[in-house]
Amino acid sequence: MEQPASQYDPSEAAPQARPAPARTLVIDLEGALLRSELLMEALFSAPARMLARFGAGGRPGMAVLTEVLARARIDYAHLPYDAEVLNRALAARARGAKIYLVAERFADQAAGISAHLGFDGVVTPADLAAGGNLPFDPAAIERIDHVNRDRASLRTWAKALRLYQYAKNTLVFVPVLTAHQVNVATLGTTLLAFLAFSACASGAYLMNDLLDLAADRQHPTKRHRALAAGDLPISSALPAIPALWLFAFGASLCISWTFLSVLVAYLVTTIAYSLVLKRKMLVDVVTLAGLYCLRIVAGAVAAGVVLSEWLMVFSLFVFTSLALIKRFSELSMRQGEGLADPSNRDYRISDLHIIAAMAAASAMNAVTVFALYVSSSAVTPLYSRPWMLWLLAPLLLYWFGRALMIAHRREMPDDPIIYAFRDGASRTTVAAMVCIMLAAI
What is the spatial distance between Cα 136 and Cα 96, in angstroms, rounded to a whole number? Predict the structure, then answer.
Protein backbone atom coordinates (compact mmCIF):
# COMPACT_ATOMS: atom_id res chain seq x y z
CA MET A 1 0.00 0.00 0.00
CA GLU A 2 1.42 3.37 -0.99
CA GLN A 3 2.68 5.35 1.93
CA PRO A 4 1.61 9.00 2.20
CA ALA A 5 4.29 11.55 1.39
CA SER A 6 5.99 12.88 4.44
CA GLN A 7 5.30 16.46 5.34
CA TYR A 8 8.10 18.94 6.19
CA ASP A 9 8.05 19.89 9.85
CA PRO A 10 10.06 23.08 10.56
CA SER A 11 10.41 22.06 14.16
CA GLU A 12 12.37 18.98 13.12
CA ALA A 13 14.87 20.90 10.95
CA ALA A 14 18.34 21.62 12.23
CA PRO A 15 18.63 25.10 13.62
CA GLN A 16 20.14 27.52 11.12
CA ALA A 17 23.01 29.70 12.30
CA ARG A 18 22.17 33.35 12.01
CA PRO A 19 24.71 35.42 10.06
CA ALA A 20 27.01 37.32 12.30
CA PRO A 21 26.39 41.04 12.27
CA ALA A 22 28.78 42.86 9.96
CA ARG A 23 31.63 44.49 11.80
CA THR A 24 32.46 48.13 11.28
CA LEU A 25 35.76 48.85 9.56
CA VAL A 26 37.57 52.00 10.66
CA ILE A 27 40.62 53.15 8.68
CA ASP A 28 43.14 55.80 9.60
CA LEU A 29 43.22 58.29 6.75
CA GLU A 30 46.85 59.33 7.18
CA GLY A 31 49.20 56.44 7.78
CA ALA A 32 46.95 53.77 6.29
CA LEU A 33 44.63 54.73 3.42
CA LEU A 34 46.52 57.74 2.07
CA ARG A 35 50.05 57.33 0.74
CA SER A 36 50.73 61.01 1.30
CA GLU A 37 50.29 63.83 3.82
CA LEU A 38 46.99 65.68 3.60
CA LEU A 39 48.51 68.97 4.69
CA MET A 40 51.19 68.77 2.01
CA GLU A 41 48.62 67.85 -0.61
CA ALA A 42 46.66 70.99 0.24
CA LEU A 43 49.72 73.21 0.28
CA PHE A 44 50.60 72.20 -3.27
CA SER A 45 47.12 72.43 -4.68
CA ALA A 46 46.50 75.38 -6.98
CA PRO A 47 44.21 77.43 -4.68
CA ALA A 48 46.62 76.95 -1.79
CA ARG A 49 49.53 78.24 -3.85
CA MET A 50 47.53 81.33 -4.76
CA LEU A 51 46.68 81.91 -1.11
CA ALA A 52 50.31 81.55 -0.11
CA ARG A 53 51.30 83.97 -2.85
CA PHE A 54 48.98 86.77 -1.77
CA GLY A 55 49.23 86.08 1.96
CA ALA A 56 46.67 85.07 4.53
CA GLY A 57 46.13 88.11 6.70
CA GLY A 58 49.61 88.06 8.17
CA ARG A 59 48.73 85.42 10.76
CA PRO A 60 51.68 83.08 11.21
CA GLY A 61 51.93 79.45 12.16
CA MET A 62 49.39 76.67 12.12
CA ALA A 63 46.42 79.01 11.79
CA VAL A 64 47.49 79.95 8.27
CA LEU A 65 48.19 76.33 7.35
CA THR A 66 44.79 75.26 8.60
CA GLU A 67 43.11 78.01 6.60
CA VAL A 68 45.09 77.04 3.52
CA LEU A 69 43.97 73.44 3.87
CA ALA A 70 40.35 74.43 4.44
CA ARG A 71 40.30 76.46 1.22
CA ALA A 72 42.28 74.03 -0.91
CA ARG A 73 40.45 72.09 -3.58
CA ILE A 74 42.06 68.70 -3.41
CA ASP A 75 41.32 66.27 -6.23
CA TYR A 76 40.06 63.33 -4.17
CA ALA A 77 39.69 61.11 -7.24
CA HIS A 78 43.40 61.10 -8.01
CA LEU A 79 44.99 61.02 -4.55
CA PRO A 80 47.54 58.22 -4.02
CA TYR A 81 45.50 55.72 -2.03
CA ASP A 82 47.01 52.49 -0.73
CA ALA A 83 45.65 49.84 -3.10
CA GLU A 84 45.69 47.03 -0.52
CA VAL A 85 43.84 49.07 2.11
CA LEU A 86 41.31 50.27 -0.44
CA ASN A 87 40.68 46.70 -1.61
CA ARG A 88 40.12 45.59 1.98
CA ALA A 89 37.61 48.40 2.40
CA LEU A 90 35.75 47.39 -0.76
CA ALA A 91 35.68 43.76 0.37
CA ALA A 92 34.29 44.83 3.74
CA ARG A 93 31.65 46.93 1.99
CA ALA A 94 30.66 43.89 -0.08
CA ARG A 95 30.08 41.99 3.19
CA GLY A 96 27.74 44.74 4.36
CA ALA A 97 30.14 46.41 6.77
CA LYS A 98 30.08 50.12 7.43
CA ILE A 99 33.32 51.98 6.85
CA TYR A 100 34.55 55.05 8.70
CA LEU A 101 37.72 57.08 8.31
CA VAL A 102 39.73 58.16 11.33
CA ALA A 103 41.11 61.68 11.02
CA GLU A 104 42.64 63.71 13.80
CA ARG A 105 42.67 66.98 11.89
CA PHE A 106 41.18 68.63 8.82
CA ALA A 107 37.77 67.03 9.26
CA ASP A 108 36.25 68.77 6.22
CA GLN A 109 38.81 67.34 3.83
CA ALA A 110 38.51 63.92 5.47
CA ALA A 111 34.74 64.07 5.06
CA GLY A 112 35.18 64.93 1.40
CA ILE A 113 37.43 61.90 0.87
CA SER A 114 34.97 59.68 2.75
CA ALA A 115 32.08 60.86 0.62
CA HIS A 116 34.06 60.42 -2.59
CA LEU A 117 34.94 56.82 -1.72
CA GLY A 118 31.40 56.02 -0.60
CA PHE A 119 32.30 55.48 3.04
CA ASP A 120 29.92 56.16 5.92
CA GLY A 121 31.65 59.02 7.71
CA VAL A 122 34.57 60.27 9.76
CA VAL A 123 35.44 59.84 13.43
CA THR A 124 38.32 61.16 15.48
CA PRO A 125 40.86 59.16 17.50
CA ALA A 126 39.47 60.82 20.65
CA ASP A 127 35.99 59.53 19.84
CA LEU A 128 37.35 56.02 19.42
CA ALA A 129 39.27 56.21 22.68
CA ALA A 130 36.26 57.48 24.62
CA GLY A 131 33.89 55.01 23.01
CA GLY A 132 30.93 57.32 23.38
CA ASN A 133 28.78 59.12 20.80
CA LEU A 134 29.95 56.77 18.05
CA PRO A 135 27.59 55.84 15.20
CA PHE A 136 28.58 52.18 15.65
CA ASP A 137 29.28 49.63 18.37
CA PRO A 138 32.90 50.21 19.53
CA ALA A 139 33.10 46.57 20.59
CA ALA A 140 32.50 45.31 17.06
CA ILE A 141 35.05 47.10 14.95
CA GLU A 142 38.02 46.18 12.82
CA ARG A 143 40.63 48.89 12.55
CA ILE A 144 43.41 49.54 10.08
CA ASP A 145 45.48 52.12 11.89
CA HIS A 146 48.87 51.77 10.31
CA VAL A 147 50.47 50.32 7.21
CA ASN A 148 54.16 49.52 7.30
CA ARG A 149 55.72 51.19 4.31
CA ASP A 150 59.38 50.94 3.56
CA ARG A 151 61.37 54.12 3.29
CA ALA A 152 61.83 55.39 -0.22
CA SER A 153 64.39 53.17 -1.93
CA LEU A 154 67.39 54.34 -3.89
CA ARG A 155 65.52 53.38 -7.04
CA THR A 156 62.61 55.61 -6.02
CA TRP A 157 64.97 58.51 -5.33
CA ALA A 158 66.73 57.92 -8.65
CA LYS A 159 63.36 58.07 -10.36
CA ALA A 160 62.37 61.26 -8.55
CA LEU A 161 65.72 62.97 -9.16
CA ARG A 162 65.51 62.00 -12.85
CA LEU A 163 69.00 60.53 -13.02
CA TYR A 164 68.32 59.44 -16.58
CA GLN A 165 67.86 63.10 -17.49
CA TYR A 166 71.50 63.72 -16.65
CA ALA A 167 72.18 62.76 -20.25
CA LYS A 168 71.09 66.30 -21.15
CA ASN A 169 73.81 67.76 -18.98
CA THR A 170 76.51 66.13 -21.10
CA LEU A 171 75.98 69.21 -23.30
CA VAL A 172 78.49 70.98 -21.04
CA PHE A 173 81.18 68.86 -22.72
CA VAL A 174 80.25 70.08 -26.23
CA PRO A 175 82.35 73.31 -26.22
CA VAL A 176 85.49 71.44 -25.13
CA LEU A 177 85.01 68.79 -27.80
CA THR A 178 84.13 71.14 -30.66
CA ALA A 179 87.03 73.48 -29.77
CA HIS A 180 89.40 70.48 -29.66
CA GLN A 181 90.62 71.53 -26.20
CA VAL A 182 90.42 68.12 -24.55
CA ASN A 183 92.91 67.72 -21.69
CA VAL A 184 92.95 66.74 -18.04
CA ALA A 185 92.32 70.28 -16.76
CA THR A 186 89.39 71.09 -19.05
CA LEU A 187 87.81 67.67 -18.57
CA GLY A 188 88.11 67.98 -14.79
CA THR A 189 86.38 71.35 -14.55
CA THR A 190 83.78 70.31 -17.10
CA LEU A 191 83.01 67.17 -15.10
CA LEU A 192 82.49 69.33 -12.01
CA ALA A 193 80.21 71.56 -14.09
CA PHE A 194 78.28 68.47 -15.13
CA LEU A 195 77.76 67.48 -11.48
CA ALA A 196 76.67 71.01 -10.55
CA PHE A 197 74.12 71.17 -13.34
CA SER A 198 72.85 67.68 -12.53
CA ALA A 199 72.26 68.52 -8.85
CA CYS A 200 70.64 71.83 -9.77
CA ALA A 201 68.38 70.14 -12.32
CA SER A 202 67.34 67.41 -9.85
CA GLY A 203 66.25 70.02 -7.34
CA ALA A 204 64.27 71.75 -10.08
CA TYR A 205 62.64 68.46 -11.12
CA LEU A 206 61.48 67.86 -7.54
CA MET A 207 60.07 71.36 -7.32
CA ASN A 208 58.33 71.00 -10.67
CA ASP A 209 56.77 67.68 -9.64
CA LEU A 210 55.46 69.23 -6.43
CA LEU A 211 53.84 72.06 -8.34
CA ASP A 212 52.39 69.67 -10.93
CA LEU A 213 51.01 67.02 -8.57
CA ALA A 214 47.38 67.41 -9.64
CA ALA A 215 48.14 67.53 -13.37
CA ASP A 216 50.60 64.62 -13.23
CA ARG A 217 48.06 62.37 -11.50
CA GLN A 218 45.65 62.84 -14.38
CA HIS A 219 48.33 62.05 -16.96
CA PRO A 220 48.52 58.45 -18.27
CA THR A 221 52.29 58.16 -17.73
CA LYS A 222 53.29 60.99 -15.39
CA ARG A 223 50.98 59.61 -12.70
CA HIS A 224 53.66 56.99 -12.07
CA ARG A 225 56.20 59.60 -10.97
CA ALA A 226 57.46 59.06 -7.44
CA LEU A 227 55.72 62.04 -5.86
CA ALA A 228 52.49 61.73 -7.82
CA ALA A 229 52.21 58.02 -6.94
CA GLY A 230 53.03 58.57 -3.28
CA ASP A 231 56.19 56.46 -3.46
CA LEU A 232 58.23 59.40 -2.20
CA PRO A 233 56.73 61.47 0.65
CA ILE A 234 56.39 65.16 -0.02
CA SER A 235 57.97 65.86 3.37
CA SER A 236 61.11 64.03 2.21
CA ALA A 237 61.31 65.81 -1.13
CA LEU A 238 61.02 69.31 0.33
CA PRO A 239 64.36 69.37 2.24
CA ALA A 240 66.11 67.61 -0.64
CA ILE A 241 65.52 70.60 -2.94
CA PRO A 242 67.66 73.17 -1.03
CA ALA A 243 70.24 70.48 -0.25
CA LEU A 244 70.75 69.76 -3.95
CA TRP A 245 70.94 73.45 -4.81
CA LEU A 246 73.49 74.11 -2.05
CA PHE A 247 75.69 71.34 -3.44
CA ALA A 248 75.35 72.80 -6.94
CA PHE A 249 76.34 76.28 -5.73
CA GLY A 250 79.29 74.90 -3.76
CA ALA A 251 80.56 72.99 -6.79
CA SER A 252 80.11 76.11 -8.94
CA LEU A 253 82.24 78.21 -6.61
CA CYS A 254 85.04 75.67 -7.07
CA ILE A 255 84.98 76.54 -10.78
CA SER A 256 84.45 80.29 -10.97
CA TRP A 257 82.06 83.09 -10.07
CA THR A 258 81.18 83.43 -13.74
CA PHE A 259 80.11 79.82 -13.89
CA LEU A 260 78.02 80.33 -10.74
CA SER A 261 76.25 83.25 -12.40
CA VAL A 262 75.40 81.05 -15.39
CA LEU A 263 74.08 78.34 -13.09
CA VAL A 264 71.99 80.88 -11.16
CA ALA A 265 70.57 82.15 -14.46
CA TYR A 266 69.71 78.56 -15.36
CA LEU A 267 68.01 77.96 -12.00
CA VAL A 268 66.04 81.24 -12.06
CA THR A 269 64.86 80.50 -15.60
CA THR A 270 63.94 76.94 -14.61
CA ILE A 271 61.88 78.18 -11.65
CA ALA A 272 60.18 80.78 -13.83
CA TYR A 273 59.46 78.03 -16.35
CA SER A 274 57.91 75.78 -13.68
CA LEU A 275 55.78 78.56 -12.21
CA VAL A 276 54.69 80.58 -15.22
CA LEU A 277 56.48 80.17 -18.54
CA LYS A 278 55.54 76.56 -19.27
CA ARG A 279 51.90 77.66 -19.39
CA LYS A 280 52.58 80.22 -22.13
CA MET A 281 52.20 79.13 -25.73
CA LEU A 282 55.58 78.90 -27.53
CA VAL A 283 57.26 80.81 -24.70
CA ASP A 284 57.79 77.42 -23.10
CA VAL A 285 59.46 76.11 -26.25
CA VAL A 286 61.84 79.06 -26.54
CA THR A 287 62.63 78.79 -22.83
CA LEU A 288 63.44 75.09 -23.10
CA ALA A 289 65.72 75.76 -26.07
CA GLY A 290 67.43 78.52 -24.08
CA LEU A 291 67.97 76.22 -21.10
CA TYR A 292 69.69 73.70 -23.34
CA CYS A 293 71.88 76.43 -24.80
CA LEU A 294 72.75 77.64 -21.28
CA ARG A 295 74.30 74.23 -20.62
CA ILE A 296 76.61 74.78 -23.59
CA VAL A 297 77.47 78.29 -22.38
CA ALA A 298 78.23 76.88 -18.94
CA GLY A 299 80.54 74.26 -20.45
CA ALA A 300 82.49 76.93 -22.31
CA VAL A 301 82.78 79.09 -19.18
CA ALA A 302 83.89 76.15 -17.04
CA ALA A 303 86.57 75.00 -19.47
CA GLY A 304 87.66 78.51 -20.41
CA VAL A 305 87.24 78.00 -24.16
CA VAL A 306 85.91 80.48 -26.71
CA LEU A 307 82.25 79.89 -27.48
CA SER A 308 81.57 79.58 -31.20
CA GLU A 309 78.74 81.69 -32.58
CA TRP A 310 78.12 78.98 -35.16
CA LEU A 311 77.65 76.44 -32.38
CA MET A 312 75.17 78.64 -30.52
CA VAL A 313 72.99 79.39 -33.57
CA PHE A 314 73.04 75.74 -34.62
CA SER A 315 72.15 74.65 -31.08
CA LEU A 316 69.30 77.14 -30.81
CA PHE A 317 67.57 75.72 -33.89
CA VAL A 318 68.28 72.11 -32.85
CA PHE A 319 66.83 72.52 -29.38
CA THR A 320 63.85 74.53 -30.59
CA SER A 321 63.03 71.67 -32.92
CA LEU A 322 63.43 69.10 -30.14
CA ALA A 323 61.24 71.13 -27.76
CA LEU A 324 58.53 71.33 -30.43
CA ILE A 325 58.82 67.58 -31.06
CA LYS A 326 58.36 67.03 -27.32
CA ARG A 327 55.16 69.10 -27.33
CA PHE A 328 53.99 67.33 -30.47
CA SER A 329 54.59 63.94 -28.86
CA GLU A 330 52.66 64.92 -25.71
CA LEU A 331 49.67 66.25 -27.65
CA SER A 332 49.70 63.28 -30.01
CA MET A 333 49.65 60.92 -27.04
CA ARG A 334 46.65 62.76 -25.57
CA GLN A 335 44.87 62.54 -28.89
CA GLY A 336 45.51 58.80 -29.06
CA GLU A 337 44.25 58.28 -25.50
CA GLY A 338 41.12 60.32 -26.17
CA LEU A 339 42.08 62.89 -23.51
CA ALA A 340 41.14 66.55 -23.40
CA ASP A 341 43.52 69.44 -24.06
CA PRO A 342 46.20 69.70 -21.35
CA SER A 343 45.21 71.91 -18.44
CA ASN A 344 48.75 72.97 -17.55
CA ARG A 345 49.87 73.86 -21.09
CA ASP A 346 48.60 76.53 -23.46
CA TYR A 347 48.22 74.10 -26.37
CA ARG A 348 45.33 72.31 -27.99
CA ILE A 349 45.27 68.98 -29.72
CA SER A 350 44.17 70.83 -32.84
CA ASP A 351 47.59 72.55 -32.84
CA LEU A 352 49.38 69.32 -33.77
CA HIS A 353 49.87 70.16 -37.44
CA ILE A 354 51.34 73.61 -36.90
CA ILE A 355 53.64 72.34 -34.15
CA ALA A 356 54.91 69.59 -36.46
CA ALA A 357 55.52 72.13 -39.23
CA MET A 358 57.45 74.43 -36.89
CA ALA A 359 59.52 71.50 -35.60
CA ALA A 360 60.44 70.48 -39.14
CA ALA A 361 61.27 74.08 -40.08
CA SER A 362 63.58 74.50 -37.08
CA ALA A 363 65.32 71.22 -37.90
CA MET A 364 65.90 72.29 -41.51
CA ASN A 365 67.26 75.65 -40.33
CA ALA A 366 69.72 73.81 -38.10
CA VAL A 367 70.95 71.76 -41.06
CA THR A 368 71.23 74.95 -43.15
CA VAL A 369 73.30 76.67 -40.45
CA PHE A 370 75.55 73.63 -40.29
CA ALA A 371 76.03 73.70 -44.06
CA LEU A 372 76.95 77.39 -43.93
CA TYR A 373 79.44 76.63 -41.16
CA VAL A 374 81.11 73.90 -43.20
CA SER A 375 81.34 76.34 -46.13
CA SER A 376 82.92 79.06 -43.99
CA SER A 377 86.55 79.68 -43.13
CA ALA A 378 85.90 78.87 -39.47
CA VAL A 379 86.44 75.14 -40.07
CA THR A 380 89.94 75.48 -41.55
CA PRO A 381 91.85 75.90 -38.25
CA LEU A 382 90.03 73.00 -36.64
CA TYR A 383 89.79 70.34 -39.37
CA SER A 384 92.40 69.08 -41.81
CA ARG A 385 89.74 67.42 -43.97
CA PRO A 386 86.71 69.73 -43.60
CA TRP A 387 85.07 68.28 -46.73
CA MET A 388 84.24 65.17 -44.70
CA LEU A 389 81.90 67.23 -42.53
CA TRP A 390 79.46 67.38 -45.45
CA LEU A 391 78.68 63.74 -44.67
CA LEU A 392 77.04 64.91 -41.45
CA ALA A 393 74.28 66.81 -43.28
CA PRO A 394 72.36 63.73 -44.55
CA LEU A 395 72.74 62.09 -41.15
CA LEU A 396 71.22 65.15 -39.48
CA LEU A 397 68.36 65.18 -41.99
CA TYR A 398 67.75 61.48 -41.33
CA TRP A 399 67.78 61.86 -37.55
CA PHE A 400 65.43 64.84 -37.41
CA GLY A 401 63.07 63.23 -39.91
CA ARG A 402 63.07 59.97 -37.96
CA ALA A 403 62.36 61.78 -34.69
CA LEU A 404 59.35 63.52 -36.25
CA MET A 405 58.05 60.29 -37.73
CA ILE A 406 58.42 58.38 -34.46
CA ALA A 407 56.63 61.17 -32.58
CA HIS A 408 53.86 61.18 -35.21
CA ARG A 409 53.40 57.43 -34.68
CA ARG A 410 53.12 58.01 -30.92
CA GLU A 411 56.18 55.85 -30.31
CA MET A 412 58.24 58.47 -28.47
CA PRO A 413 57.24 58.34 -24.79
CA ASP A 414 60.36 60.17 -23.62
CA ASP A 415 62.03 63.50 -24.12
CA PRO A 416 63.59 63.45 -27.64
CA ILE A 417 67.13 63.75 -26.26
CA ILE A 418 66.54 60.89 -23.81
CA TYR A 419 64.93 58.93 -26.63
CA ALA A 420 68.08 59.40 -28.72
CA PHE A 421 70.11 57.63 -26.04
CA ARG A 422 67.65 54.71 -25.93
CA ASP A 423 66.84 54.33 -29.62
CA GLY A 424 69.18 51.97 -31.46
CA ALA A 425 68.98 53.79 -34.80
CA SER A 426 69.67 57.12 -33.10
CA ARG A 427 72.70 55.73 -31.26
CA THR A 428 74.07 54.34 -34.52
CA THR A 429 73.54 57.69 -36.24
CA VAL A 430 75.29 59.61 -33.45
CA ALA A 431 78.18 57.13 -33.45
CA ALA A 432 78.57 57.60 -37.20
CA MET A 433 78.64 61.38 -36.74
CA VAL A 434 81.34 61.12 -34.11
CA CYS A 435 83.44 58.88 -36.35
CA ILE A 436 83.11 61.33 -39.26
CA MET A 437 84.15 64.27 -37.07
CA LEU A 438 87.16 62.38 -35.76
CA ALA A 439 88.16 61.43 -39.29
CA ALA A 440 87.85 65.07 -40.39
CA ILE A 441 90.25 66.37 -37.73
Answer: 14
